[in-house]
Amino acid sequence: MRRREFITGVAGIGASAAALSGVGAALGAAADQRAGTPGAGDKRRRIAVSTWSLHSYFSTTREKSSTLPGKMLELLDFPEMIADRYKLHHLEFVAPHFASVEPSYLKELKARLAKAHSHLVNIPVDIPELRKGGGLSDPDEQVRSAAIAGVKKWIDIGAELGTRAARCDPGQMKAENLAPTIDSYKQLAAYAKARGVDVIIENHGGVGSEHPEELVKLFEGVGKDFKGALPDFANFPDEPTRERGLKLLVPYARVLCHAKGLEFDAQGNETKFNFSRCMEISKQAGFKGIYSIEFEGPGDPYVGVQKTLDELLRYL
Fold first, then answer.
1. How far apart are CA 251 and CA 244, in angstroms?
2. What is the structure's pLDDT at 227?
3. Is 200 helix (H, G, I), strand (E, B) or coil?
4. At what angle do helices 275-284 and 239-249 cross, to 10 degrees?
5. How far is the C-alpha of 271 from the C-alpha of 275, rounded, in Å?
6. What burial class does residue 205 get, using C-beta atoms within 10 Å of its C-beta: 0-12 exposed, 13-18 middle, 19+ buried?
7. pLDDT at site 40
8. How many whole angstroms separate alpha carbon 170 and alpha carbon 234?
9. Global pTM value
10. Nearest Cα to 152, choosing from 133, 170, 172, 166?
């Protein structure tokens, strides 16, 4: 089930100072080692995990038909769990998985990220305001203003948590009239830039999946410096569209790509689409960002995340 189906819902003196500095550096290195933080050259430094990979372990997005066993998850515990289990320290937090947006909660979440030596790279802003009417693409300025205000709130939350990006969908984008959509993203991009955040758009939910050229037109309309793509490997209807789509979208991606995991064979190869070719295209395009694991297949999602991680490590 796709995430869209659930939306209706972070420097003494002289020799003594030098000695103390040396001790501090040693302690810091020891802490990093205990935390399993990837060292220079470790491929894990370019891999993230999205909370969506484990969405049925979050009460707000658990599928009604889910029979998955085990303890439900809290976002506060996610950074340490992912660091301990997968030795990964880049994360995506989907908006519905926030138990609160109160300052005290965000402060604690930021502390949990720091404790795990982890970093938030993106917030997928899946919020009701983007589903009302045409969302950020609605011709009614009042509807669009409400959607823009909703996204700005999450850009502020992301900036507080230190995120690099916020992903927000354009809603009912119309290729024949991109003016409302372009205006929305010009406002959001300027607002986010002032806060050190990038606004990014994913190819999914009917937008940019079958016709990725439409997203390129949107990017160019917002401005030549707008690098706003979040290419998702799996969100295309077939291999020819995936080939064309990734070649078009990856050059506009400067933060991350979604490395989707769906189903794997006995050798650990993705069977639903050509994963290795997706990686090859991203490399050829010069992508230097993060590959974020988004597992959406059947079975144990913890195992699915591991299999997707293994495949990424193989091709990175």
1. 12
2. 87
3. strand
4. 30
5. 8
6. middle
7. 67
8. 19
9. 0.87
10. 166
Q: How far is CA 116 from the centre of its chain?
A: 18
Q: Is beta strand 165-167 parallel, antiparallel or unpaired with respect to 198-202?
A: parallel
pLDDT of residue 271: 98
- Long-range interactions of 54-57: CB distance < 8 A, separation 24+: 54/295, 54/301, 54/302, 54/305, 55/3, 55/6, 55/94, 55/97, 56/301, 57/301
The per-residue pLDDT for 32 is: 46
Cβ neighbour number for residue 2 with a 10 Å cutoff: 12
What's the average pLDDT block by block, 10 residues per block, for the chain (316 residues)?
A: 43 35 37 57 94 97 91 97 98 98 98 98 97 96 97 98 97 94 97 97 91 96 90 97 98 96 97 98 97 96 98 97
The letter for the amino acid at 265 is D
What is the C-alpha separation between 59 and 56, in angstroms, rounded?
7
pLDDT at res. 224: 78
Domain architecture of the chain: domains with CATH: 12-41 (no CATH), 42-315 (3.20.20.150)
pLDDT reported for residue 21: 36
Which amino acid is located at 59 in the chain?
S
Q: How many CB atoms lie within 10 A of CB 294?
A: 30
Q: What is the rounded distance in angstroms from the CA atom of residue 253 to the CA atom of residue 191?
A: 19
